[in-house]
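Reviewer comment 2.1 asked that we show a complete input and output for one of the modelled complexes. We chose the iron/sulfur cluster case, as it is the one discussed in the main text.
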Amino acid sequence: MEATATRISDNAPGKYYVTSNCNGCGICFSYALQNFMYSNDSTYYYVYSQPVDEREETDIRRAMEVCPMDCIRDDSDKN
Ligand code: SF4
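Response of the prediction step:
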């Protein structure tokens, strides 16, 4: 399943992004209000803003840990 997940086009340019596996639960938003936003139809969330400081970076890392679909990714984890 994960192999077919794609980066949602709404994601802000940068290393963090949400994939198409998102189920729209909104847990990420509760952990990182500044960085995630819901889609117009509320069916998925995406990275609205990349972290601008350590605190926001920590918030996103926490959201990654609790995301039930494991669909918040960090580009810099690759390779
Ligand atoms: S926690 Fe994960 S599955 Fe839930 S809305 Fe956020 S990115 Fe999507």
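Helices lie at 27-31, 54-66. We note this here for comparison with the apo prediction described in Section 3.2.
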